Amino acid sequence: MKNLLLFGYGKMGSSIARGWKLKELDFNIFIIEKDVSQRKLAKKDGFNSYENIEHLNKTKKLKIIDIIFLAVKPQQMEETVISFSDFNLDKSVFVSIAAGLSFSWFRNKINKDIKIVRAMPNLPASIGFGVTGYCKSKNLSEEEDKDVRALLTAFSKTIYLNNESLIDNVTAISGSGPGYIFYLIEVLSQIGIDQGFTKKDAKILAKETLIGSARLIEASNIDPKILKENVTSSGGTTEAGLLVLQSKKNGLYPLLKSTINYAIKRAKELNFDG
After folding, report:
1. Is the whole model's pTM more than 0.85, yes or no?
2. pLDDT reported for residue 59
3. Rg (Cα) of the chain, in Å, rounded?
4. I need a labelling partner for 58 at 20 to 30 A (CA). Which of 45, 86, 189, 222 fits?
């Protein structure tokens, strides 16, 4: 059985680990977490938890660490990778979910031949319904790539990116996307209130419409464009509303395109090669 180290047991790290546990993956999973309360939570969730990699090494004496999954914040990453300096990790594959830290950053901080994967999951991964875009350095073996995909698909659907720069686009679309969706529900709810519904009823109308529509897409496997056409009657209310939403000048497409472009711009500003 292979050895997997997860650094960080915060919101995303703990969500990812629970996804692994549900899938009963063929890995020995060890958690490295300096925060005492989060370390206790990891143990409560059934994981072996350690304050640092030195503590783990004294306890377990692992000869090989197959995968190191980095779920710490970008500003904590340098402190984390420094802790590897006394260990031979030539055969280890690193997986980072930190935004803004490029392959070059890790090569500069660890070594130039590092095997590294960058992945960008999103918040729904916390309930096993996430989507993750990932890219990899060219020196991963077929088996190592298979292991990484098994870990990522345990908590999300995945798309492979053949260009590292596309990570910024994934960040803007699906990484930040839940925020856009939550805001859409917030806006629809407020409009419902403006139209005379109670706050509770307005929220139900907005939230359940989105949830039901998403489930319909998932269950039917019909292209969203076709579903849109199916619900749109000539001269009806949906058509009237879509005339506004589909406006080439002020409609949803130009608005969302501008939103995504601003998010991509910000993601690129956060990139750091080290």
Report:
1. yes
2. 82
3. 22
4. 45
